[in-house]
Amino acid sequence: MKNIITALVLGLFSLSCYANTSQSYTIDSVTGVETWKIYSQGVNFSLTQILPEQAQAFYVNRGFTLKQIKPYSSSCVYMAVLRNDNAPGTIHFESNKWSVFVNGQSRLLTSVDNWVQQLTTSTTKKSALIAFRWAQFPPEQEYEPGGDWNQGMLSIGLAPGSQFDIVARWDIDGKPYNVKLRGVRCVR
Amino acid sequence: MSGKQSSRIRTLLLVLTLSLSGVTLAAEIPPLTHKLTALNPPINAPSLRLKNMDDEIVDIKDLKGKVVVVNFWATWCPPCRREMGSLERLHLATKDKNVVILAVNIGEDVDTVFSFMGQVDPSPSFPILFDLEAHSMKLWKVHGLPTTYVINPEGKIVYRAIGGREFDHPDIQKTVIDLGN
What is the pTM of this model? Predict the structure, then answer.
């Protein structure tokens, strides 16, 4: 009897831990593009694969040459969405504090400023750099509850086919929160 | 045709479509909401003095006494594209009620914006301003596109929206119209 009660308590505890967190996975039937999405503590976070050819086409259309943009487009790029639906307050984040876990090793994301520096050469068009900077997921931002959000490109900096977990971090009035998306794959 | 060739052709067609439309991805689009965040206390609107499509200077200083909705956007930004039609509907519903809408395009030229306008239904008839160097982003503390501010007749920012919105929602229309009364 004691074992049954213990099992029930543990079961209820596990359920309560996951009650506000759910990860989903979808695959687009036409393009094969995969999306990983999680809702936790009132915040939605998702990553949708961007094919290297898609990223190249987007930035070549904005004025980059294929050669200029290739290091970025082949760096495992996602369309990231973060949205404050009903968190208990204003969320504030800095994406350079988010972590990527590959084979048990943690690493930080390459910053947007770093990418802009890498892409800035004597022949890069200024309009292309402006589009690049503002098409990225914001390096820092604040979202009010009720639907503040952004959608932007996020480079993970991994080789094609890599699999990783990513921890997105934010704070509300200085109190830290985080959510982990597990088993995300880079396009091959 | 092998499976690999077929896949590559499908990808190229997709890329071509995306290049022409300027849209990055259509998958997993979050719904637009209609909440504006009130700024307490309101803050003074920064300066904004930019050229419109007719190469004429528009200065926000000259709009004191009116409610001004300032929207920062670009044609390649998917949520900006989604909300543009609703901004025009807001404009149509409020243009005779002391409300002005200004859409500040970031880093693009007149031809690019003009060709996009033809794709929006209804096509925007409010002023589009051009910030080729994206200088206003820092001044207005914009960290991501789209971002929209509502300025009261005294020149203070009273509401903010980060990310796409349904600007023609009755709640937003009422909020904006009430400010001008």
Answer: 0.88
Chain-chain contact of B15 with A53 (C-beta, under 8 angstroms): yes
CB contact under 8 A, B18 and A138: no
Q: Contact A135/A163 with Cβ under 8 angstroms?
A: no
Task: Determine what percent of chain B is predicted with pLDDT higher than 90.
Answer: 81
Across the A:B interface, residue pairs with CB atoms under 8 Å apart total: 120
ipTM over 0.95: no
H/E element, B8: helix B3-21
pLDDT confidence bin for A2, thresholds 50/70/90? low
Contact list in A for residue B133 (CB cut-off 8 A) is 126, 130
Q: Do A127 and B107 touch (CB under 8 A)?
A: yes
Check CB contact of B80 with chain A, cutoff 8 Å.
Answer: no
Alpha-carbon gap, residue A113 to B140, rounded angstroms: 19
Residue type, A68: Q
Residue whose entry in the numeric block shows the structure tokens 């943009």: A69
Q: Tell me the pLDDT tens digit for each residue of B6-26.
A: 444 444 444 444 443 343 444
How far does CA B25 lie from the centroid of its chain?
A: 19
Please give, rounded to a whole number of angstroms, the shortest distance from the CA of A105 to a CA of chain B: 29
Backbone angles phi, psi at B106, to 5 degrees: -105, 115
Q: Phi and psi dihedrals of B98, rounded to 5?
A: 70, 30
